[in-house]
Amino acid sequence: MADPPGCCRPCATCLLCLYSCQWITAKKEKRKGLRTTKCDCSWFLFLFCVFLFTLVWLYFAIIILNDFHNFNEFIFKQRKLWLDWSLVLLIATAVLITYSAVLLVLALCLQLCGQPLKLHWLHKTLLILTALVVAAAFTGLGIKWAEEWRSARISLQATGPFLHIGIVGGMTLLAWPLASFIYRTHNTGLKVFLLLVYCAVMIALYLAPMGITSPCIMEEKQLPPKPALVGHRGAPMLAPENTLMSLHKAVDCDVQVFETDVMVSADGVPFLMHDEELTRTTNVQAVFPERAALNSTAFNWTDLQQLDAGSWFLERRPFPTVQSLSAGDRYQATKQRIPSLEQALEAAKQSNISIMFDLRPENHSDYQSFVNATLEVILQSGIPLQQVLWLPDGFREQVKHQAPGVQQVYGRKRLQNEKEPLLHVNLPYQDMSTEEIRQYRQDNISVNLYVVNQPWLFSVLWCSGVSSVTTNACQVLKEMKHPIWLLPSSTYLMIWIVVDCTSFLAILWAFLLLK
């Protein structure tokens, strides 16, 4: 069979060399009578599946970036090693997807040029390794980070309409090599099978928008108010977490609430600290090396004040934004110390923002004394009690009695026949559906979801009607004046019809042109 129009012999030779790892010219290939066997077709199908597999993993990798700081903290607790593992994830994923995509493009070009698909054994081995690596990544995700599956489902509300357009476009382009293969093969059964499968997939894709739902498919006038921002440990992308600098940076980002974590020192002083150990966010290993592994509550306030709570931020760079800090901010970060709750309350009062906190560790034997010490500081601080949001469940009734003006925030959904109605809930963003958020909003229950860093996720929750979100990226979400996208249902229907009709005509043209 002659080469198809537009497929020059040198091009076919290069494609064969790259795909088969052998320098076989198109002319020699014809003399040797090489042709695509059933085994070669099976390897092409495997290549196509591996490409789709890595493509799905790329999607997951992008989605889990919202929560990857939690993974970095987890690794540090286990190995005492700090690294931005998101870079490793993205680089590895990019290598895998690029390799499988290049091989697939080569195979499709060879098919269009009428050349045999003789995949080299080295490529076969690397494809198997790629499939195993991605399978291991998915397995690890399911075992250690199962909530990210729910994150992926939420992400489809933001990406569903665009994924549909992309998949339809990709399947439409696939019509060209498919038509070329069908017209070249003499196996009638295979022709019929491929056509039936392709038609079934395309029909399913054309009808897919009927099952796509997103809270952002609405009229502009139906859009709820922008959610308020809660600074997660302040503004941790701009300053060391749980420091006064972080609180002030959060104020600059227009946050309404400073979210933090409180522990109580050995001599009864409540202070801001998230981790049970001091090793991640202070220089305790240099100052008290023999006590570095002790719980934070084992140190008295005098000892805690000797620790540097800011230099680690510049050394470890927990977020890429650290590199862009000004010289003044860098100097200020090195001067940070562990703040007491009293200092934080005074700063919140002066800045007129609320403060929300957990009291850790809740399983401590002296937890009631921690509650008493914390309440005493709050009541003596002079901050308006409505600016204090209380998260801990332990001894909540005592807190209600001693400080009735403090706002009670619950880390659970409401129960049936609840004696006292909830007014504020604080939950992971994976735990509430769009329908639940809207129902809580109708019932005047304030819903705060955490931790929301990516604009796509913030957009979905904005359209859903959430009251506020806890974020590490207050400087990013502050600048958002509108969800990333908002489509009236009529516009979405028009786009759906245009995309499907264009795709159908392009497929028809491909089969008629290559006949």
Automatic annotation (TrEMBL):
- Subcellular location(s) per record: Membrane
Residue ranges crossing the lipid bilayer per the database entry: 41-65, 85-113, 125-143, 163-183, 192-212, 493-514
Query: Where's it mainly located?
Result: membrane
User: According to its record, how does it sit in the membrane?
Assistant: Multi-pass membrane protein
Molecular function GO labels: glycerophosphodiester phosphodiesterase activity
Q: Where is the GP-PDE domain?
A: 227-481
User: What Gene3D superfamilies is this protein classified in?
Assistant: Phosphatidylinositol (PI) phosphodiesterase (3.20.20.190)
Among SUPFAM superfamilies, the record links this protein to:
PLC-like phosphodiesterases
List GO terms (cellular component aspect): plasma membrane
Q: Which InterPro entries match?
A: GP_PDE_dom (IPR030395), PLC-like_Pdiesterase_TIM-brl (IPR017946)
A family per Pfam: GDPD
Q: Does the keyword Iron apply?
A: no
UniProt keywords, alphabetically: Glycoprotein, Hydrolase, Membrane, Transmembrane, Transmembrane helix
GO biological process entries: lipid metabolic process
UniProt key word Nuclease = no
Q: What is the similarity comment for this entry?
A: Belongs to the glycerophosphoryl diester phosphodiesterase family.
PANTHER family listed in its UniProt record: GLYCEROPHOSPHOINOSITOL INOSITOLPHOSPHODIESTERASE GDPD2, GLYCEROPHOSPHORYL DIESTER PHOSPHODIESTERASE
Q: What protein is this chain from?
A: GDPD2 inositolphosphodiesterase
Q: What is the lineage of its organism?
A: Eukaryota, Metazoa, Chordata, Craniata, Vertebrata
What is the name of the gene encoding this protein? Gdpd2
